Amino acid sequence: MTLTPKIKPNSKIFIVSAPSGCGKTTLCKKLLKDKLKLYQSVSATTRPRRKGERNGADYFFMSAEEFIRMIDTKELLEYEENFGFLYGTPKKLIEELLQKGKNVLLSIDVKGAMNVRKNYPQNSVLIFVMPPSMDELKKRLETRKADTAKSILSRLKIAKQEIAERDKYDYVVVNDSISAAYKAMKDIIVLETESTSPSNPKNSGMVLRRH
Ligand code: 5GP
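# guanosine-5'-monophosphate complex -> structure
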């Protein structure tokens, strides 16, 4: 008989969601570089690799067949389709980290965030990153020149749907400036990892709420 080691109650899974173009990747990369003892969960995806992305570091890039095999063998904690591609969170690494009492950073969409929380209700801390306004988000998507006009419209439509779900998150951070949003997220992580039952977070000015 194999006994599954228990997940440490103090281990935290920080789940960050944001509409496309809100600076989530930049913020998460900065947090991982900081001395916050956060471990990154690398997702699996069928989306083609973008310039500068590394397999195994940014994502595990794979074919649809490989992804479906991971679904069949129950290797994914959750998975969703986004913009025509599949994205999923591998289960093994997260479980190992939580059993060792480590803290994990997950950067996934709203549906995925809800599913992870369902699996780990005691360990999950959900952070939603918002754009300062829809106009500003549109401007950012247009400036990064990564999408066609049609794709920008579809991303804005999805952004509106995701923003409507922000109340389901523990924290909402407005990304007005990267440095202030980063500080707000760092404050949340420090607060949540230092205390097992946060009640009244320090307000860094950018954090809107803790339910
Ligand atoms: P992108 O292609 O821009 O890297 O990501 C597209 C969307 O997929 C983003 O909202 C991102 O957070 C989400 N995503 C990335 N990895 C996962 C995952 O493992 N699970 C889920 N549910 N969404 C993911």
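# post-check
The chain has a mean pLDDT of 89.
The chain has seven helices and nine strands.
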